[in-house]
């Protein structure tokens, strides 16, 4: 659509005199403005990073300096005026990338100064950024730190509540709009009683007026919402530039991780956003549709798929969703991927599952609700424990089990011996241990593949077959010991060991040799 827009606009972007101070004539300027705004309207719901890229492309595609200036100024104006929360980041990007470096000139030095001020007063408090640290005073003159890292500084109390949302409200006692906003905010806080912290920051310097305002306008009674009254009469915290407080009121919402998720809100918008954040979203994972989706994603890799291939997909999902603020989509796709990998055979999939659990689930802040714990994190902890059993490079557990030991016989035959064997003492340079059950087609295929391996170039190879159904019925103690030592949630489980009994491979398949060495890295 970008290219179509530019092509449609070519007649309107004819070259005009390039002397200093020259501008497009009004008809052409209006046409450029209309086309730019039409396109920006079409992409306004896309991630901010995408809108930045499109803005750069639009400006960079203009070969005429006057047209480039008109397009850049229109984009900047569009995003400074937009009512869509968060897109002012594009205007800051335009300042940093085009106007301030001098790649595109503004109409006057005064406009450039205004753009510089806009960027400086917005760049630290954009959506998705960590809330800037500020040290403010309470009514007794005590120093209170918000959103900072404790540094042990004497006389400074860390105020930000762990695990709670923060409402940051800047107001002035002589601001008419603030009085209305304060009434709305007070009513909302008292009615909803959110499990959150309200930090009400007075921007004025008159202590008596501030305390009177707090007493008459902000006497808030709640059970769950904690209210803190703060101020900075000498502007020592730089809250004005850190949060862009050029005028009041200013209302921000910060999540429990200290990330800004709402800025330049009014009280009603804050209420809606906080309700949405606090309302648990029940999600279902591992659907048939999601399995078909990931089948298509990984189909191009075929049997040669590697752990690193799957990790790249997981990392891309995180960057395209959570990194852009879409926590819901991140959780849905990542949870589906975990369930999908759980049901896949092969070391590459299990390796990737282990990485996904550690990096995108158990250590990721997105999973914090009771629903998450029930359906994802608790299951992930179980999987983590299973995947940790008998890892590669470790000695195989020294368990004696009843089974069938196979080795190459004379000619193209296989010799079998029933008995009780130690898992790490099968007598082969390379040994395969196949845990299986009766009536399992995949188990049967793996056993047949093992026989083919022994009758081929099978010198030095041993295969130990362990029938778990038989053990449970005749030797339940052995069966329990094996379940404690190995991941036997899905069978067959095929492991390989060397002559010293060290595990050299897990979750193998002898049916397809390409999967014997999945390329874990």
Explained architecture:
Helices cover 44% and strands 15% of the residues. With 521 residues, the chain is of the alpha/beta class. A six-stranded mixed beta sheet has the order 10-9-12-11-13-14. β4, α7 and β5 form a beta-alpha-beta unit. α3 runs parallel beside α5 and α4 packs antiparallel against α5.
Q: Work out the strand percent.
A: 15-25%
Broad shape? elongated
Look at the structure and give the CATH class of the largest domain.
Alpha Beta
Number of domains: 4
| Total DSSP E strands | 14
Question: So, the CATH homologous superfamily of the largest domain?
Answer: Glutaredoxin
In short:
The protein is of the alpha/beta class and 521 residues long.
Chart the SSEs and their pairings.
Elements: H1 2-8, H2 26-43, H3 48-60, H4 65-81, H5 88-99, H6 109-120, E1 134-137, E2 143-146, E3 156-158, E4 165-171, H7 176-192, E5 196-202, H8 207-217, E6 226-231, H9 239-242, E7 250-254, E8 260-262, H10 267-278, H11 288-298, H12 307-320, H13 327-342, H14 347-362, H15 370-387, E9 400-408, E10 414-422, E11 430-436, H16 441-455, E12 461-467, H17 468-474, H18 476-485, E13 493-498, E14 503-505
Parallel strand pairs: 2-3, 4-5, 5-6, 11-12
Antiparallel strand pairs: 1-2, 4-7, 7-8, 9-10, 9-12, 11-13, 13-14
Helix pairs in contact: 2-4, 3-4, 3-5, 4-5, 5-6, 12-13, 12-14, 13-14, 14-15, 17-18
């Amino acid at each position: 659509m970008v290219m179509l827009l530019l092509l449609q606009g070519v007649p309107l972007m004819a070259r005009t005199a390039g002397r200093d101070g020259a501008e497009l004539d009004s008809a052409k300027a209006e046409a450029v403005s209309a086309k730019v705004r039409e396109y920006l309207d079409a992409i306004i719901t896309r991630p901010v990073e995408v809108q930045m890229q499109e803005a750069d492309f639009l400006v960079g595609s203009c070969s005429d300096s006057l047209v480039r200036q008109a397009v850049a100024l229109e984009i900047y104006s569009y995003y400074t005026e937009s009512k869509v929360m968060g897109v002012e980041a594009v205007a800051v990007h335009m300042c940093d990338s085009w106007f301030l470096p001098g790649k595109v000139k503004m109409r006057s030095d005064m406009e450039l100064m205004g753009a510089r001020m806009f960027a400086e007063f917005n760049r630290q408090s954009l959506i998705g950024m960590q809330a800037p640290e500020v040290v403010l005073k309470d009514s007794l003159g005590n120093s209170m730190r918000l959103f900072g890292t404790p540094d042990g500084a004497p006389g400074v109390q860390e105020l930000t509540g762990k695990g709670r949302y923060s409402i940051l409200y800047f107001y002035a006692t002589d601001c008419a709009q603030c009085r209305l906003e304060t009434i709305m905010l007070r009513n909302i806080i008292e009615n909803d009683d959110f499990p959150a912290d309200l930090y009400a920051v007075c921007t004025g310097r008159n202590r008596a007026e501030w305390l009177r305002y707090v007493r008459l306008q902000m006497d808030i009674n709640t059970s769950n919402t904690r209210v803190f009254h703060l101020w900075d009469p000498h502007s020592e915290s730089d809250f004005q530039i850190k949060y862009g407080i050029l005028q009041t009121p200013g209302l921000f919402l910060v999540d429990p991780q200290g990330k800004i998720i709402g800025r330049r809100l009014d009280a009603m918008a804050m209420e809606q956003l906080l309700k949405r954040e606090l309302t648990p979203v029940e999600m279902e994972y591992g659907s048939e549709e999601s399995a078909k989706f990931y089948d298509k994603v990984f189909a191009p890799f075929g049997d040669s798929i590697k752990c690193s291939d799957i990790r790249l997909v997981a990392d891309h999902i995180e960057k395209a969703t959570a990194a852009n603020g879409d926590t819901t989509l991140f959780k849905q796709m990542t949870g589906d991927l975990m369930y999908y990998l759980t049901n896949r055979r092969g070391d590459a999939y299990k390796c990737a599952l282990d990485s996904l659990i550690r990096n995108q689930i158990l250590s990721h802040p997105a999973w914090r609700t009771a629903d998450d714990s029930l359906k994802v994190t608790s299951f992930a902890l179980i999987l983590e424990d299973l995947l940790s059993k008998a890892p590669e490079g470790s000695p195989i557990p020294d368990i004696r089990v009843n089974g069938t030991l196979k080795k190459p016989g004379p000619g193209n035959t296989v010799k079998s011996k029933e008995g009780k064997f130690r898992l790490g003492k099968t007598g082969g340079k390379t040994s395969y241990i196949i845990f299986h059950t009766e009536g399992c087609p995949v188990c049967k295929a793996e056993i047949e593949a093992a026989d083919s391996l022994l009758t081929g170039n099978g010198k030095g190879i041993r295969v130990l077959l362990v029938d778990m159904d038989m053990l449970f019925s005749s030797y339940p103690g052995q069966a329990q010991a094996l379940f404690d030592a190995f991941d036997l949630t899905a069978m067959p489980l095929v492991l390989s060991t060397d002559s010293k009994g060290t595990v050299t491979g897990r979750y193998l398949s002898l049916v397809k040799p390409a999967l014997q060495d999945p390329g874990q890295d």
